[in-house]
Write a structure and sequence with these properties.
two-stranded antiparallel ribbon; D-Maltodextrin-Binding Protein, domain 2; 446 residues; alpha/beta; 9-stranded mixed beta sheet; 13% strand
Length: 446
């Protein structure tokens, strides 16, 4: 799977990506997902919601529908023998393999649950979900979904999601900081217990250390670096999520983390309010243009194009959510590839899981989600996929904290504590199109 909102672009890391890409083709998701009209079915109250059943018939449906979801033992008993479907982007083979082996095996052996991973573009997933809801299908085909950002907001508002459910999850209660802004909000939208975090992603830049000896770690150094290497540096056009995230990092470096993070709390932003925060950063971006690829007269359309240009040697820097260690390991990038972040920080986000309002196997979905956020599975995700854990390390026993700290990293990976110490909250969903519009008018067209 992938989203920011994912899936890794060709030539990019296979780590958890930005939620907006998973949201579905940056820049169009919000318009695509604002379903209109009256819909059948609303989000459940949490202990009932839409009818839940397993696929074995009316008797099983009646049993599942009577489950006291606040009783975890009852949830475990109801989930036995169920097949639970997890829908999400399926283009990351490393992630698919982990889900279909490590996670699926654990669910089967520990809980007698069969996991069915359904890889599908998020727009197709939501079309399927909305179609079933509008048709009044009480037991749909989707149990839980990798969903974020604008998609989550729209689905929750339209009653397509079941919950709140996170309070039922033992591992959420024991190991996740439920009061963290990254848990309470998804791209600026209150989660209200309708989503459980899955993993964290954070913007990183990378380079070939045989070509670049000292990467720029401040916005001043980055400007000088572009001047020293004219035509060899650029970024994807904002509208592509990677491009928007990268200019966010630079703007934050100019205006400061605290000032930039005002954008993460804006629920109904105006262009004037956003401009008041980012204008110095836009001026900085404008000043870079003469030294960028094609003198800033045009920008690569997306991160896939940028990655190809980087791999071909046309550019000397690349960027994305996560380190490119997998690409080094499989020989797509040289072993001399290294990652870096700005001293002022880089933007990051969390990815989430939600349960469909008409999910037929709610008990199994709860158990599967709870297992994903167990210390064992979160450690395995970090070891095998390099993704930042959603667990609060302070809540873990010392032995388990040490296991995270002792995970061997590749040369292209940045230590977990360093990333988290330089993490900046992304702008909220409503801010993003305004920021992209301001960039287009005040930087690209200036």
């Amino acid at each position: 799977m992938k989203q920011n909102n994912g899936q890794p672009q060709p030539g990019q890391t296979t780590g958890l990506m930005s939620r907006r890409r998973f949201v579905g083709l940056a820049g169009t998701a919000a318009a695509t997902l604002m379903f209109g009209g009256a819909f059948v079915g609303c989000a459940g109250s949490g202990n009932g919601g839409s009818p839940a059943s397993d696929a074995s018939g009316d008797d099983a449906a009646a049993i599942a529908n009577s489950v006291d979801f606040s009783d975890w033992n009852a949830v475990l008993e109801a989930a036995k023998g169920q097949t639970v479907s997890w829908y999400g982007w399926g283009g990351d083979e490393a992630r698919n393999t982990w889900i279909n082996t490590v996670l699926a095996d654990a669910l089967k052996q520990k809980y007698d649950i069969t996991l069915d991973l359904v890889g599908m573009d998020i727009n197709d997933i939501l079309t399927q979900l909305s179609g079933e809801m509008q048709a009044g299908v009480e037991e749909g085909s989707i149990d839980f979904i990798w969903i974020n950002g604008e998609n989550f907001y729209s689905c929750k508002e339209n009653g397509y999601l079941w919950g709140p459910f996170t309070s039922y999850l033992p591992n959420f209660n024991d190991y996740i900081d439920g009061n963290s802004p990254e848990v309470l909000y998804d791209f600026g939208s209150p989660t209200e217990g309708f989503e459980c975090p899955y993993g964290k992603a954070q913007m990183q830049m990378w380079y070939n250390s045989d070509v670049v000896t000292t990467p720029p770690t401040t916005v001043e150094e980055f400007a000088a670096f572009c001047q020293q290497h004219p035509g060899q540096v650029t970024y994807p056009e904002p509208g592509d999520f990677t491009g928007t995230a990268f200019i966010s990092c630079l703007i934050a470096g100019v205006v400061g983390k605290g000032e930039f993070e005002k954008l993460s709390a804006m629920e109904e932003p105006t262009e004037e309010a956003v401009l008041a925060v980012v204008e110095p950063g836009l001026e900085y971006l404008k000043s870079l243009k003469p030294y960028l690829w094609k003198e800033g007269t045009t920008f690569p359309a997306d991160s896939s194009t940028l990655s190809t240009m980087y791999a071909d040697g046309e550019l000397i820097l690349n960027m994305g959510y996560g380190a490119p260690q997998d690409l080094v390991n499989n020989g797509q990038l040289p072993e001399t590839t290294r990652s870096f972040i700005f001293d002022s920080g880089t933007v990051g986000n969390s990815n989430f899981m939600a349960i469909a309002a008409n999910a037929p196997h709610k008990a199994a979905a709860l158990v599967a989600i709870n297992e994903v956020v167990s210390p064992e599975m979160q450690l395995s995700i970090y070891e095998n996929l390099g993704n930042i854990s959603v667990l609060d390390m302070a809540k873990l026993p010392q032995e388990q904290r040490a296991q995270f700290e002792n995970v061997p990293l590749g040369a292209a990976q940045i230590p977990l504590d360093e990333l988290l110490d330089h993490r900046i909250a992304e702008a909220s969903g409503p801010v993003i199109p305004i920021l992209e519009k301001l960039w287009l008018e005040r930087v690209a067209q200036a």
